[in-house]
Model the fold of this input.
Amino acid sequence: MSVLECRNLTKKYGNLTALDNIDLTLEPGRIVGLVGPNGSGKTTLIKLAQHMLTPTEGQILIGGAEPGPWTKGMVSYLPDRDFLPSWMNVDSLLHFYMDFYQDFDPDRARQMLESLGIDPRMTFKKLSKGTREKVQLIMTMSRKASVYLLDEPIAGVDPAARDYILRTIISSYSENALVLISTHLIADVEPVLDEVVFLKQGHIELHENADALRERTGMSVDGYFREVYKC
Amino acid sequence: MLTKLIGYEMKAFGRIILPLYAATLGMSFLIGLGVRFLPEEAYNNFFGATVIMIFSVLIISTMVMTGILCVQRFYQNLLGNEGYLMFSLPVGTHQLILSKILASLIWTFLGSVTALCTGLILAVTVVPYRDLIGAVRILGIKLSELDVQMMVNGMGSLFLWIVVGVLSFTAMLMQIYASLAIGHQWSSHRILGSVLTYFGINTIKGILSGLLVNIGIQTGLPGFIMTQTGQESLVPVQVSAVCMALVLIVVFSYLTWYFLDRKLNLE
Done:
């Protein structure tokens, strides 16, 4: 049974069509790379899944339901920016997540914070950019969610932090969960991907198993991406 | 969930506003003691003027800061980057809006209590204890001499005015929230969009209330007759004001909800 499904999904911003009649079905237990150049509709798709945008036409379903408070309880979302209140300290953020998400595992979060040497008493705004991103990822991945929507989780962090983030994603998500990673840094995430969805100007260019794609094209996903999106 | 949202909102407000309330109360106590115990020449000079000025600034900034926070919390927490967190919570958009409005009302109430306490502290510290007791006794005697029916009427009217005040303030806040939600539809210059929306709504409100007054005068509705003829009872005026505020609250709440739930446009 699919956990995320798009049916004839279209999103327009005025005259600009960000997503054009998309049909997509994603199964649980998979790590899916949502790739494409800037402006291809990656963030729009994720925002639609999280009810931060409403479709112009068509439907998007999470666990069979239209996005709303119920689906937000089963989706763990990491936006592509600093989104946690800057005045709160890490420990307060932990309690905030515990208060609002039944599936949040504080022990897992504390363990990850400790392994990274992040002091829970530190105020969020006083952390470095890289550490803030790690804290946000820890909060997101410490939920036992059915769907993880990660929008550019490794953009803007150094290569060592990227490795940590990817390791965290792999080690944290439950086997029955769907992890959708939006990125244009394909080479970095390629080793963890089960499937890839290529978006191009609001259309799905390709949706394929990562291994099958490599076998079919004789190229890495990153290499094939460069071929498809060659300027 | 609504309780948790309000609790979180109270904390966010409190970390800024509570030190201001505490400073205002502390300052009123110190000024009261100074006026009572220091010789007149000690405070009747530049130092005294400075202390009074600081106190006035504290009182004004407490009021202004409460107002600013009521608006800023909505804007920053729902329409800024924090909106990505808040709109990801498993709660309805109506609960997010309700938590903002309720927390704002609670903090405005606490601000009013602080202002009252400031006056009380000044009275208690400045006026000698015996004089204060005497004044309270005289007040008690004067009150007991009043006609019971008049007191009941007075209390009722005061209660109605408080209701009018609270609802009108809520309607004003909801108008600001609706303006911010609508102004956020602009792709850029969103603050300008919100300000223009606010004034646009005010213009529409002005036109509609003008029409309503005209209709009221022509059809002879009781409330309008009272205001026109200047009769003693203000109850119809108060009831009209309550109805008007309730209508505005409903309209602005719906607009805010619609633009946040159906047309959310976070950067």
